[in-house]
């Protein structure tokens, strides 16, 4: 009786397409993770750029652009983990 139940469960899973995958992430997930990590590295490396903040009108990569790279990196990482 248990053999027939196992085969019927397997047939139902094949019809539903709910077969569990061997790995939790696909190739696209790993590509998104790499992109997020690269954005974080660029953002944190940009914070290391020397800058003198003597004038408020002076543009500074570390002050204006790097935080956006870091925020974008974290958003991409969260998307990569939650993407199915």
Count of the separate structural domains: 1
Classification by helices and strands: mainly alpha
Strand content: under 5%
Shape: rod-shaped
The total beta strand count reads 0
Number of helices: 4
**What's the end-to-end separation, in Å?**
36 Å
Q: Which ranges are low-confidence, i.e. pLDDT below 50, for 5 or more consecutive residues? A: none
> How confident overall, as mean pLDDT?
81
Say what oligomer this is. single chain
List the helices and strands and how they pair.
Elements: H1 2-16, H2 27-47, H3 61-64, H4 66-82
Helix pairs in contact: 2-4
Describe the protein.
By secondary structure, this protein is mostly helical. α2 packs antiparallel against α4. The protein is rod-shaped. It has helices at residues 2-16, 27-47, 61-64, 66-82. The protein has one domain. The two termini are 36 Å apart. The chain has four helices and no strands.
Name its key features:
4 helices, mainly alpha, 68% helix
Précis, in short:
This protein is mainly alpha-helical and 84 residues long. It contains 4 helices and no strands.
